[in-house]
Amino acid sequence: MKIFEKLLELGADVKVKEPLANHTSMKLGGPVDYLVFPNDQESFVESLRFLNEYGIPWKIMGFGTNLIVEDREHPGAVLKTERLTSIRFEGSEVIAECGISLKRLCRLCALEGLSGLEFAYGIPGSLGGAIYMNAGAYGGEIGEVVKEVLVFDGKESRWISRDELSFGYRESLLKKEKLIALKAVLRLKRDDPQNVQSRMIDFLRRRIEKQPLDLPSAGSVFKRPREGFYVGKAIESLGLKGYRIGGAEISRKHAGFIVNIGGAKFEDILKLIDLVRREVKRNYDVVLETEVEIWRSSKR
Ligand SMILES: Cc1cc2nc3c(=O)[nH]c(=O)nc-3n(C[C@H](O)[C@H](O)[C@H](O)COP(=O)(O)OP(=O)(O)OC[C@H]3O[C@@H](n4cnc5c(N)ncnc54)[C@H](O)[C@@H]3O)c2cc1C
Question: What gap in Å lies between CA 133 and CA 28, rounded to an integer?
Fold first, then answer.
């Protein structure tokens, strides 16, 4: 069976043996057999049905900004949502497809005079990726503004309301049940566009000041283990800021980030993560969980 041809027939575009390093903010990841770009919701769903039917393993990627991807070959397919970007407004609600960037979404909402997403301005991911992990910053979380999400469960599409989406700290039903977000309805509040815009700019400035945005990274590596425990500060207190393994470095600007200073290998990053977890456990008796998602190759 010709997988490449079939995916094209289903309305997607496909790159064969495409290095995932070209698609992750960490600039890391080996080639995947098929990198699939669905051009609309139907080609997305039909491609997934086809891959399921033939037992071809697949993963979903938004903008690859929360991923540490192994630098080996990845059998199967990765479906990238970046072309699913339609958006429309109905009163104070916005209905957007999963592949829209948070940045564009925030900007369009600001122009419409809709408030609620300011915190997300500067999070470099897609709406789908944000819903999947309930992305948040500066006291806000995407789950707070989601009204409902159209999900695909591998067979059928259905709307799920916020109450059923089990949003928690970096958690959602999508994560627990491997559901795919196709589109979402967000419920926002009317405000003066200038006010919305200035709050967005304020949050963005704080990011620029604190985060190593000039180097490849996947954002904060670890989840906050509990209220009031600041992972970055703890790592810094252990003298690990700037610590390097190969091309991976604990950021000198924000110790909660690992940056790729050039040629970082997957193993370099995993070793740094292990080192931090070990040292934080030993010194603070705190177990750190990763916020970033680690994609290992199934090829051994
Ligand atoms: C500099 C920097 C700053 C960051 N700051 C923040 C921050 O302040 N707060 C924060 O929460 N995160 C932050 N992040 C992490 C990241 O941007 C967010 O987690 C973002 O929501 C991930 O979106 P993505 O599209 O890049 O997802 P990806 O990294 O592509 O994927 C992450 C996970 O989401 C899944 N996924 C993606 N799209 C869908 C979909 N449509 N349906 C179901 N699952 C899907 C993927 O399969 C994968 O499991 C930061 C990252 C960087 C690099």
Answer: 21
Please give the Cα distance from 5 to 97 (Å, whole number): 26
Q: Give distance in angstroms: CA of 57 to centre of ligand 1.
A: 21
**Prediction ipTM score:** 0.99
pLDDT of 300: 74
Q: Is 67 touching ligand 1 by the criterion CB < 6 Å?
A: yes
User: What pLDDT score was predicted for residue 229?
Assistant: 95
- Check if the beta carbon of residue 286 is closer than 8 Å to that of residue 225: yes
Residue numbers in the chain where pLDDT is lower than 70? 1
Q: Is 291 a catalytic residue?
A: yes
Which residue has the CA at smallest separation from atom 2 of ligand 1?
Answer: 219
DSSP label of 29: -
Which residue type is seen at 62?
A: G
Q: In the annotation, is 277 catalytic?
A: no
To which residue do tokens 């071809």 refer? Answer: 56
Task: Domains for the chain: give ranges and CATH numbers.
Answer: 3-80 (3.30.43.10), 87-208 (3.30.465.10), 212-295 (3.90.78.10)
| Whether the CB of 174 sits within 6 Å of ligand 1 | yes
What's the pLDDT at 1?
66
**CA-nearest residue, atom 37 of ligand 1:** 129
**Structure-block tokens of residue 207:** 């990011």
What residues form DSSP beta bridges with 75?
Answer: none
pLDDT for position 69: 98
Residue 46: helix, strand or coil by DSSP? helix
Say how many residues make up the chain: 300
Whose CA is closest to 78, among 57, 99, 53, 52? 57
Measure the N-to-C terminal CA separation of the chain; round to a whole number of Å: 24
